[in-house]
Amino acid sequence: MTGRTGAGRERRLVVLRHAKSAWPDGVADRDRPLAARGRRDAPAAGRAIAGTVGLPGLVLCSTAVRTHETWELAAAQWDTSVPVRHEPRLYAADAPALLAVLHEVPADIGTLLLIGHNPGLADLVLTLAGDGVDDTLDRVRTKFPTSAIAVLSWRGAGWPDLVPGTALLTAMTVPRGAA
To answer: How many Cβ atoms from other residues are within 10 Å of residue 134's Cβ?
Structure first.
């Protein structure tokens, strides 16, 4: 049996949408940097992750400039380094493609941070969550804005056990930095 009620180790997937990006003229989408607000919000996201779930065992980050910058600013809030893998398949990925990448995560990773893009991230959260705490599912359905963090909890022997409808959405927050 898989999922949050299944056998195996308790696992958490932390999903972080990149912070607010800029739209400079003549810059390809993949190369867009963070906007000023994004540079303020990304450190707040790092603090929120550390305060809510602790540090992940591994980070999977899209190769887009805005996700890389989000990761660097968030991770700078932590006292220790966390292994990160910059994964080109996460850029513009839909939920099934994201789930395929998650299924490759080593079994010894209990908490994973995934940094990417919408609409794929929101669709992934809604696909995986069989239920949610309080109004978390409704909030993700309504909007998963930049810097949004969703935390999914489930049980399984390994990441291939994470399948649609088997996780519990335990938290959804949108940290904002001071202006």
So the answer is: 11
DSSP state at residue 88: G
Residue tagged 């963090």 (tokens): 149
Beta carbons within 10 angstroms of residue 82's beta carbon: 15
Report, as an integer, the average pLDDT of 118-127: 98
- Give the start-end residues of each E strand in 18-73: 58-61
What length does the chain have?
Answer: 179
Residue type, 24: P
Question: Quick count: other Cβ atoms within 10 Å of Cβ 75?
Answer: 21
Query: b/e string for 35-65 if b means 16 or more Cβ within 10 A?
Result: bebbbbbbbbbbebbbeebebbbbbbbbebb
Question: What is the mean pLDDT of the segment spanning 12-19?
Answer: 98
Rounded-to-integer distance, Cα 21 and Cα 27, Å:
12
Q: Which two tokens stand for residue 152?
A: 């999914």
**Torsions phi, psi of 43, nearest 5?**
-60, -35
